[in-house]
Amino acid sequence: MDVYLGRQPIFGRRLEVRGYELLFRHGDTGAAGVLEGDRATSQVLLNACTELGLERVVGDRVAYVNLTRSFLVGRYPMPLAPDRVVLEVLEGQTVDAELIRGIEQLRSRGYRIALDDFDPNSEDAGLLGLADIVKLDCRALSAELLERTVHTLGPKGMELLAEKVETLEDFERCRELGFDTFQGYFLSRPKNLHARTIPPNMVALLRLLSSLQDPDAEVEQIQSLVGQDVSLSYRLLRHINSASYALRQQLGSVREAVVYLGLARVRNLASLFLLARLDGRPSELIVTAMLRARMCELLALEAEMHRPDTHFTVGLLSALDALMECPIDVLLEHLPLAEPVRAALLHREGPLGETLACALAYESGDWDAVKCSSLSAQSIRGTFLDAVSCVERTRADATTQAA
Length: 403
Description:
8-stranded mixed β-barrel; TIM Barrel; alpha/beta; single chain
């Protein structure tokens, strides 16, 4: 999922950055788009707090956020701490008892209030007693009105911020008038921030996948995780009891499956079935993940590498970015994987990265890159064919179960 947020710096008199105004954006063009006010404010707060992260957006500076009436009067919660944000009261608000009471409550909690695009001849003048910062549009107000307003407000002890500073002349004039802070195209145009995040409907799935792949998870934890998910435990047991495993007797619980197959195999099979739940994804992506996982495992077995099950994990997770439509580095932030696994997925490093690179090269037909340890081309081809056979059996079992 793509997340966008506009950010324009606010400068002090020595051109040091004092904070950033956060602006709604709906794409990478830099345009704000059309969105109802409450939703736009909510989206800015959500993107700043959770999706992008406030530290990444403003660092140790302060965020300036435009608020609609619904936020000012307390109908919606304020997720940012008072020391990290300045709340801007948009111009043209109906100044009544409800609004004044809401702003007073915000100030009592430690929030600083700024009046945006303040016009001394409008209703906004009724909010001056509640303001810590007043933003004046140096282009919208006449030179005479701007000077008179600055001289009137200056002695009241509130910070004066000059908006729409678009030329050197604007900046010098506003600084001479006594403005404390400055914002505008002359100093810096808004920058559009962009990030790819995990789609909301996949967060729960990734959390479960994360728990399954946690290298510190104990047997009891894995049994509990799988057992609590009725659909997952049902599919897992159906698969293990299928013809693929040729069991002498049917297994009736996840615990029995762990005892028979081992924790690593159950962990990886459960992860595979989780990925198969993703709606709207081509079924061939799941087949690709299964094929890579099995081939990596077989390559490790053939080359007598340590922990073939971990090679299975690497192959399986290598398709996660395509399945979740999110960059692998973003997804790995949510998975507590061992460093060798992360290095293999991100950089194809180490023995794990070697088997993954070999499987990917074979998959794409890049024969010059098909190599793994001391294995011959014939051995590598054999692992691929065995992996294909294994995947086909799994698909056949799944089709039989569905019927």
